[in-house]
Automatic annotation (TrEMBL):
The keyword Nucleotide-binding applies. This is CTP synthase. ATP binds at S16, L17, G18, K19, G20, I21, D73, A244. Mg(2+) binds at D73, E143. Pathway: Pyrimidine metabolism; CTP biosynthesis via de novo pathway; CTP from UDP: step 2/2. Belongs to the CTP synthase family. One of its GO terms (biological process) is 'de novo' CTP biosynthetic process. UTP binds at S15, K190, T191, K192, P193, T194, Q195, K226. One of its GO terms (molecular function) is CTP synthase activity. L-glutamine binds at Y56, G357, L385, G386, M387, Q388, E408, R465. GO terms for cellular component: cytoophidium; cytosol. CTP binds at S15, D150, I151, E152, K190, T191, K192, P193, T194, Q195, K226. It comes from Flavobacterium profundi.
Length: 537
């Protein structure tokens, strides 16, 4: 197949309808039919990337192998498709403007007035086609962030309009995701908001080819007919997306509704074989029929907002299925916890995870949590900041360095067991300057880490500024903390563990970013297994 086909996904009526999940589910079905498919997301905000955003603003910042700090929807794309994404898969308005302004400064526009149309739209269009032109994909799905009608979305909608015109019939289509609300007082589902949102799209010159309607109740035949007539789409192109108990059900629900077949028809592509979802359904089967159940404490400071730890929560779903175990995540705010109350908050847990994070707030609670897990032999996993806290706890309570700390929290500590690398010391620009993306790690033989991975050389993704201070390596190892994973190029410590504990491991990287349905992450799988064993002891 020569011509890459493009699918644009827009959203109407409200935000948070789950465009990312619909895009990922459609991509999954197309992939399962044998089409090489990728998904990209265009976000209409001015930040160059979400790396500088507080998790409360925008949920977790997802990191790709190439070190891009991206929207959390890219995590869904990878978890569903099991294909890595990259910087090209996530573009923001800030990034678009930055590159246009840089070109202007270099004089590349030859004295022309630089304008939203055509300069910004040309930049958007060229980025929309970047992955398509790589030759690696038959189908590129582009999710447009925000809601149709937003001021910020206008240049994207105009770019989609132009691109559809340039690509020609059957090479590009638009799927519009809307809400069909249920009015309890009237006992009715309402189509008017959808009609208006389709009309708004029309005002920008775009006709929706397919409507995906989020709904709490089944859409009747009459209602589908009405939506089709008033929104100018074929009845078979009115797709119901009913609330599901898990996002992992959505590909099957879309299959039943025929989203993939109607899409292929509109794109003039053959259906090929019926989708191969064998592995996917085996995962679902295990996820829905657990034989065991464990309670795992997630100790962090952004626990009020579930999206802040999205990839961690999803990694537990994958690992739970792999162990045929229902994993209940008990969110615990690290600010509410100290040595005295640790027992109250943490008793009865079968495993404890100390989460990644930045800054001082809630930090002592995390250190006390580590201590509780270590002293009570509860399976423990520390991720990034969680690993750093494990090192601090060990230095304080085993080595007796009472003021041991990270220089992020206390830059005058006499025992900076976690500190900034030399390269990081003079950095003034906060965006995109952390240690980011995939780095090599060598695991020492016969360690827990080595046993978990069944390998000695791994690659994992990072996102942090501070590091284990090598000056303390000898002291800490002599006292029983093993540095079991080392970066072979820099010598930096990436994994620590404690020998005489059933399962205690801290990793400087973020294993959660690499867990997918097809490849549950070994660290999470082993952690859940350890929790089951702890519970049954
Ligand atoms: N704040 C720590 C650092 O920058 C940890 C970051 C994280 O947990 N992602 O090193």
């Amino acid at each position: 197949m020569n011509q890459t086909k493009y699918i644009f996904v827009t959203g109407g009526v409200t935000s948070s309808l789950g465009k990312g999940i619909i895009a990922a589910s459609l991509a999954k079905l197309l992939q399962a039919r044998g089409y090489r498919t990728t998904i990209q997301k265009f976000d209409p905000y001015i930040n160059v990337d979400p790396g500088t955003l507080n998790p409360y603003e925008h949920g977790e910042c997802y990191v790709t192998d190439d070190g891009a700090e991206t929207d959390l929807d890219l995590g869904h794309y990878e978890r569903f498709l099991n294909v890595p994404t990259s910087q090209a898969n996530n573009v923001t308005t800030g990034r678009v403007y930055l590159s246009v302004i840089e070109k202007e400064r270099r004089g590349e526009f030859l004295g022309k007035t630089v304008q939203v149309v055509p300069h910004i739209t040309n930049e958007i269009k060229s980025r929309m086609q970047l992955l398509g032109q790589s030759g690696n994909f038959d189908i590129v799905i582009t999710e447009i962030g925000g809601t149709v009608g937003d001021i910020e979305s206008l240049p994207y909608i105009e770019s989609v309009r132009q691109l559809l015109w340039e690509l020609g019939d059957e090479n590009g289509i638009v799927i519009h995701l809307t809400l069909v609300p249920y009015l309890a007082a009237a006992g009715e589902l309402k189509t008017k908001p959808t009609q208006h949102s389709v009309k708004t799209l029309m005002e920008s010159g775009i006709k929706a080819d397919i409507l995906v309607c989020r709904t709490e109740h089944e859409l009747s035949d009459d209602l589908r007919q009405k939506l089709a007539l008033f929104c100018n789409v074929k009845k078979e192109a009115v797709i119901q997306s009913i609330d599901a108990s898990t996002i992992y059900d959505v590909p099957n629900l879309m299959l039943e509704e025929g989203l993939d077949t109607v899409t292929l028809k509109k794109l003039g592509l053959p259906e090929k074989n019926s989708p191969d979802l064998k592995q996917w359904n085996e995962f679902l089967q295990k996820h829905k029929n657990p034989k065991h159940e464990v309670n795992i404490g997630l100790v962090g400071k952004y626990v009020e907002l579930q999206d802040s730890y999205k990839s961690i929560l999803e990694a537990f779903i994958h690992a739970g299925a792999a162990n045929e175990t229902k994993v209940n995540i008990i969110s615990i705010h690290s600010e509410h916890l100290d040595v005295k109350t640790a027992e109250k908050h943490l008793k009865g847990l079968d495993g404890i995870l100390v989460a990644p994070g930045f800054g001082n707030r809630g930090i002592e609670g995390k250190i006390d949590t580590v201590r509780f897990a270590r002293e009570n032999n509860i399976p423990f996993l520390g991720i990034c900041l969680g690993m750093q806290m494990a090192v601090i706890e060990f230095a304080r309570n085993i080595l007796g360095y009472a003021d041991a700390n990270s220089t992020e929290m206390n830059d005058s500590t006499l025992h900076p067991v976690i500190n900034l690398m030399e390269e990081q010391k003079n950095i003034k620009n906060m965006g995109g300057t952390m240690r980011l993306g995939a780095w090599k790690c060598h695991l020492k033989e016969n360690t827990l880490a080595n046993q978990i991975y069944g390998a000695t050389d791994i690659m994992e993704r990072h996102r942090h500024r501070y590091e284990f201070n090598g000056k303390y390596l000898q002291d800490l190892e002599n006292a029983g903390l093993t540095a079991s994973g080392i970066n072979p190029d820099t010598g930096l410590v990436e994994v620590v563990e404690i020998k005489n504990h059933p399962f205690f491991i801290g990793v400087q990287y973020h294993p959660e970013y690499k867990s997918t349905v097809a490849n549950p992450h070994p660290l999470f799988v082993s952690f859940v297994k350890a929790a089951v064993e702890y519970k049954n002891k």
